[in-house]
Every structure is written in C-alpha cells, then in structure tokens.
Amino acid sequence: MQTRAAILWEPHTDWSVEDIELDDPKAGEVKIKLTASGLCHSDEHLVTGDMVIPKEIAELMNLEQFPLIGGHEGAGEVVQVGPGVTTLQEGDHVVLSFVPACGRCPSCAMGQQHLCDLGAFLLAGRQISDFTSRHHSKSGKDLGTICCTGTFAPYTVVNEASCVKIDDWIPLDKAALVGCGVTTGWGAAVNAAAVQPGETVVVIGLGGIGMNAVQGAAMAGARHVVAVDPVDWKRERAGVFGATHTAASIEEAQAKVGELTWGANAEKAILTTGVATGDLIAPMMSLIAKGGRGVVTAVAPMTQEDVKLNLFEMAMMRKELVGCIFGNANPRRDIPRLLRLYQDGRLKLDELVTNTYTLDEVNQGYRDMRDGKNIRGMIIY
Ligand SMILES: NC(=O)c1ccc[n+]([C@@H]2O[C@H](COP(=O)([O-])OP(=O)(O)OC[C@H]3O[C@@H](n4cnc5c(N)ncnc54)[C@H](O)[C@@H]3O)[C@@H](O)[C@H]2O)c1
Ligand SMILES: [Zn+2]
Ligand SMILES: [Zn+2]
After folding, report:
1. Which segments within 229-331 are labelled E, that is strand?
2. Residue 120 sits in a domain of what CATH number?
C-alpha cells in the first residue's frame, strides 16, 4: 500500500515527510494503523549524530543505518496479520514496545524483557524475521525503522514481538506514551532506583522521561522529590506529577537537598537530561548519600567514554551508579499495568502532552522540544 512517513536520510538534516510504499506483513509480522506517536528525545539523537552506528561496525554488519523512518512511541490497531502470527488478530489495540520482547530468550525468561536479545535490532532498522525491509521510498530505496517500529507514519509493519495488546477502551493517543516515555521514566524510579517510601529522590531533567520519573518516585512513596530543570514552567508543572521541591540547576539542588536532609543527602538521583554527558555524573553523584544510587537514563553519544566521577567516594561511601533501559521494565506486564493505573486515575498521561502536531509538522515538534516548550509533543494521525 501507499502511505507516508517522516524519513531521516542522514544525520544533521531535517525529517523529510514523503510518500512511501509499505509491503504486506510477512511471517510473524502485523500491519498497524497508528493513532499517535510521541516525539521522544531519542530520535533527536539520530539527527544530532549521537546515535549513529560507527562506520567500522556498520560495515562489519553489512548495514546501512540511513535512510530510516523515525518514531518509537506509538499505539494503534492491528489491520492485517501475517502468516504464523499467534498472539494478535485484526482489530486488536496495541502499544508498540520500543524494545521488542520475544518471551523466550534468557533475559525474557528471567523477567528482564528490557534486555531481550531482539534488542540487537533496535538500531539496525530491519525486520526481525528476515533482516529485510517492508518500507521503501518512492525511488525504491529500502527504509529502516528505528527501534523496529517506525511510528512517524500512519501505517507501519512490525514483528509481533514489538506489540503489546491492551484493553480496547484505553484511548490510543494516551496509550502511545507508555511505549517509551512513561515506562522509561516511571521504571527508572520504581525499578532502577528502587525508590522506597520515605526516601529523598532527585530527578535531573523534566522532559517526557523525567516527569515520569517524578511521577514514579512519588507513587513509590518518596518523601521528597526534587525536580531539576532550567526551564521555569517545567519546574512549576512538576508539582502536578508529585514533585515536592524544585531547583533550576544541579548546584541549586545540592543546596536544597542538603537542607532537606540535614546534610545526609538523597538516597537516589536519576539523570533524565536531553543528553547524558560525562561532566554531569560527578555532580549527580554528589547529591547522593552513602549507600545511595545514581541512575543514568539519559542517552549519551555512542562513542562517549570520558566520565568525571569521584572514585574514592564511590567505594568508601558505597555509592552505586547504574544504567537503565526502558525503565528496566517488562513491557508485557508493565504496559498493561501502567494503563490500568491510568484508567483508575492514579497515573497521569493526559497532563504529559503539551502540544500535538500533524506528521507534516514533525520538525516543528522537535524545534519546540529543543526550545523547552514541550513536556511531550505528540503526532496525531
Ligand atoms: N534509557 C532509555 O531507555 C531511554 C528511553 C527514552 C529516552 N531516553 C533518553 O532520556 C533523555 C530524556 O528524554 P526526553 O524525551 O525526556 O527529553 P526532553 O528533551 O523532553 O527533556 C530533557 C529535559 O532536560 C532538561 N535539561 C537539559 N540539560 C539539563 C541540565 N544540565 N540540568 C537539568 N535539566 C536539564 C531540558 O530542559 C529538558 O526539559 C534523552 O537522552 C533520551 O534519549 C532514554
Ligand atoms: Zn523514547
Ligand atoms: Zn527475549
């Protein structure tokens, strides 16, 4: 069929919205009619070159990362089912999980679906089943899909491993947020930081991920949730998601946390800035008490290796520094679980969407993100 998509032909260019040709689903695949797609900062890392596979590795894999269709935070309806699909049928409502979950690999078997072996395909852009493309440009060029999804298009074809079936009555434009941002941020607090009742938690960066880390920390029973962002209106909004205090910078947060905890410091800190840079780690860890934990959720440039960190304090104060992908969640359990909390009025989704856009306005959406105008921008089809 013919449809449209926002394509990134190479880094450091705009998204190009074009007509594309979309094939029927092959074995194990389904065609999805999307309702909405969130504008997550991770796609911006493709544009800035942070998340470009180094040339030597791409050659080794015989892989062309570009051109690709962006978008990995989507939800919609199954409109066509390929041969051999056993878990979905036409008409099912699904959230696309940005990490596929096969359910059979060692990580999935251990209840760590965010580490599913199929994650190896996230940046490869080809179909999981046979490493070919279902998406093609008008000129006949194969198009990749970021995170095996490609939600910057009203229709896409994905593997059933990327689909999590949800209750029909959940609004799909809100459910889309749980395909990445909500689960990532909420899980960064609840799973990765393992926030306990009464703790002090600092969240650094209040975008789509950070606001959900605030929301997760509050739900886990944190006593103080200190929300840090240089953008004034985002700090003001953070209270809606459960922040108890705010700071405009990490330095300001250090003073505030010292005061709140009588010098003991925070049990947990979570880094959710637009980009993770090495110079942010030491300041984040300086917010943490002995025995505390720092969680890196923000994405760094792929080749970044230099980090500023006080190693003496790390050992002698037994501080932990941990990574976190997709909120260390199990999408097949956690996506429906989070949506039921939304249904019960316990989890905020409506409040996350600041501005909506058409597919043609995708570059405006990202300009607004860069300009600090959005908690989450969302494309509605
Ligand atoms: N680990 C994962 O699985 C995962 C999943 C999704 C997104 N991410 C990453 O999480 C990060 C956040 O994504 P997002 O969509 O929320 O981005 P966003 O651009 O919407 O939000 C980032 C926020 O950080 C703030 N900020 C920037 N520098 C800061 C600083 N020094 N101190 C305090 N605040 C600062 C910005 O003002 C902005 O509000 C990105 O790097 C994204 O790629 C990671
Ligand atoms: Zn994302
Ligand atoms: Zn798996």
Report:
1. 245-247, 266-271, 288-296, 320-323
2. 3.90.180.10
Ligand nearest the Cα atom of residue 151: 2
Ligand 2 centroid from CA 180, angstroms: 5
Q: What letters, b where the CB count within 10 A reaches 16 and e where it falls short, cover 305-338?
A: eeeeeeeeeeeeeebebeebbbbbbbbbebbbeb
Residues 225 and 168 occupy one common structural domain = no
* 197 and 252 inside one domain: yes
**Residue 108 forms part of a structural domain:** yes
Q: Which ligand 1 atom sits nearest the alpha carbon of residue 297?
A: 1
Q: 206 and 318 share a domain?
A: yes
Here the CATH number for the domain that contains residue 254 is 3.40.50.720
Q: For residue 376, which atom of ligand 1 is closest to its CA?
A: 20
Helices (H), 176-324: 181-187, 208-219, 232-238, 250-260, 281-285, 311-316
* CA 30 – CA 80 distance, rounded (Å): 6
pLDDT per residue over 286-295, tens digit each?
Answer: 999 999 999 9
Which residues have CB under 6 Å of ligand 1?
40-42, 45, 180, 184, 204-210, 228-231, 234, 250, 272-275, 297-299, 324-326, 369, 372
Q: Is the pLDDT of residue 55 over 90?
A: no
Q: Which of 47, 206, 209, 228 most suits a substitution to test ligand 1, by most atoms within 8 Å of the C-beta?
A: 209
Query: What's the pLDDT score for residue 47?
Result: 98
197-219 pLDDT, tens digit per residue, is 999 999 999 999 999 999 999 99
What confidence tens digit (pLDDT) does each residue in 72-94 have? 999 999 999 999 999 999 999 99
